[in-house]
Amino acid sequence: MSEIRICGYRPLSGEIKIQGSKNAALPLLAASILQKETVRFTGIPAIQDVYRMAGILESVGCRCKREGNGLTIDASCLKGAKIFKEDVGKMRASILLMGALLGRLGGAETWYPGGCSIGSRPIDLHLMAFSELGADVREEAEDGKILATAARLKGAKIVFPFPSVGATENALLAAVLAEGETQIWGAAREPEIVSLCDFLCRMGAEIFGAGTPRILVKGVHELHGTEYEIPGDRIAAGTYLAAVAAAGGDARIWGAPWNGMQEVVGELKRTGAKVEPMPGGEKGPQGIHIRMAGRPKPLSISTGPYPAFPTDLQSPMLAVLSRAEGISRVREKVFEDRFKTVKELWKMGAQIEVCKEEAVICGKHRLHGAEVTARDLRGGAALVSAALAAEGETKILGCSHIERGYEDICRDIRALGGRIWAAG
Questions:
Q1: How far apart are CA 278 and CA 169, in angstroms?
Q2: Is the pLDDT of residue 121 over 60?
Q3: Residue 210, SS3?
Q4: pTM over 0.85
Q5: What gap in Å lies between CA 276 and CA 128, rounded to an integer?
Q6: Nearest CA-CA partner of 290 in 237, 326, 329, 236
Q7: What's the CA angle centered on 116, arms 144 and 269, to 5 degrees?
Q8: What does the pLDDT look like over 304-331, one tens digit per residue?
Q9: Tens digit of pLDDT for each residue in 359-377?
């Protein structure tokens, strides 16, 4: 899909079922190689990043079989610890295989990862965690190769100065089969961390404190196969909630994880949207119902590690606030280059000024259609939200970025009554 066309300026109405979580699925796929049997995932999202991660698993000897929304991974024939450079360059989450390979085989060879260009995303905390666990880590600066080896990883105290999600995940992956206890201080608290710990425990790991800043891991000798359901994608859900907040309407998002989206829900309510949980069973609410009439009210928000407002939804919120009745401020506290979408929103008539880590948005009654380009995954999704609220037709180029994280954004928006279609 090279481009998307949207005829906007009409409210959205209807219901959709949200896809499985991208940010949960990728570390879970990496974790699957820690056991020597078979794991089966259900609710796996049909997105490019999942396909790429499965391809990397196959390159090191795993057998991956997809059936509907399920994915079975046979890791009994894992044969190598080398990840090819061309695979790593396509997705940042490939770095998570380093911790898993270290834990399973005692060695890993990979490269500095690729992914969206949204600012400096160093992996020094990942490598520090491996070193604390006793691995010999070497970096070859000339070509970006990274090597790590360990005869046997040993439990340690790992202290993160910043709650990095990826570094916390890699520390967990390396520690579950290490000898002794590992304490992770300053751990990330995201729902995806909780899902990873839950999955590892179902395979036989002993982990305590998931979802808190301090996680304790008691190393075990081996893990076993299991089955696991991928939770709903809170970022995809937030994207569609933002689209309704921008364009107006009444929508039900089934599978949206209410309990993990309270900061997002709170900000949407402050824009004037009516946001409520949808009745569920023992597992709690089964989705989110949003209703929006009129223009959004202005906000002042700051992104940050969970449970703060997620940086992945900063760009979609810019689209919402571009139509707000007043002046809004958005502070980006995670990635310094997350405002690339602003220049594209300018083409649609948005009035946004950026100074360092803050964007000031002077809301307008109407945006207008234009030809714009998706510069990254979430920025591309934000342009879809803006286009749905804009008068006239918008053409979005560079839509391969969007496919990395959304199964079929055109299908979902059409189910809500949006006039949208893909080309190329």
A1: 31
A2: no
A3: coil
A4: yes
A5: 42
A6: 237
A7: 145
A8: 999 999 999 999 999 999 999 999 999 9
A9: 999 999 999 999 999 999 9
Residue with token string 């078979």: 38
**Rounded to the nearest 10 degrees, how much is the dihedral formed by the CA atoms of 315, 320, 324, 328?**
-20
Cα–Cα distance, 236 to 264 (Å, whole number): 12
Strand order in the sheet with 287-292: 12-17, 249-254, 287-292, 274-278
- Residue (of 7, 21, 6) closest to 405 by Cα position: 21
Q: 320 exposed, middle or buried (CB, 10 Å; 0-12, 13-18, 19+)?
A: buried
Asked whether the beta carbons of 387 and 320 are under 8 A apart, the reply is: no
Would you tell me how many other CB atoms lie within 10 Å of the CB of residue 175?
32
Quick one: which H or E segment has residue 49? helix 48-59
pLDDT at 114 (0 to 100): 58
The beta strands (E) that lie in 62-150 are given as 63-67, 70-74, 107-111, 136-140, 145-149
**Catalytic amino acids?**
116
| Mean pLDDT, residues 343-355 | 97
Spatial contact of 407 and 1, defined as CB atoms under 8 Å apart? no
Question: What is the structure's pLDDT at 283?
Answer: 72
- The DSSP symbol for 135 reads -
Cα–Cα separations (whole angstroms), residue 129 to 68, 138, 183: 37, 13, 11
Residue 336's nearest CA partner among 314, 316, 318 is 314
Q: What's the mean pLDDT in 125-141?
A: 94
Scanning 165-296, the segments in alpha helix (DSSP H) are 165-175, 191-202, 234-247, 262-270
Please identify which residue in the block is written with the tokens 């360059």.
89
Euclidean distance between CA atoms 158 and 186, whole angstroms: 9
Instruction: For residue 97, give the DSSP letter.
Output: H
Mean pLDDT across the chain: 94
CB 95 within 8 Å of CB 124: no
Query: Which residues are registered as beta bridge partners of 233?
Result: none
H or E stretch covering 16: strand 12-17
Q: How many helices (H) and strands (E) does the chain have?
A: 14, 25
Backbone angles phi, psi at 390, to 5 degrees: -95, 150
Residue 290 to residue 412: CA distance in whole angstroms = 15
Instruction: Write phi, then psi, for 150 (nearest 5 degrees).
Output: -160, 125
CA dist 223 and 54 (Å) reads 20
Q: What is the pLDDT of residues 11-51, one digit of tens each?
A: 999 999 999 999 999 999 999 999 999 999 999 999 999 99
Of 1, 56, 2, nearest to 32 (Cα)?
56
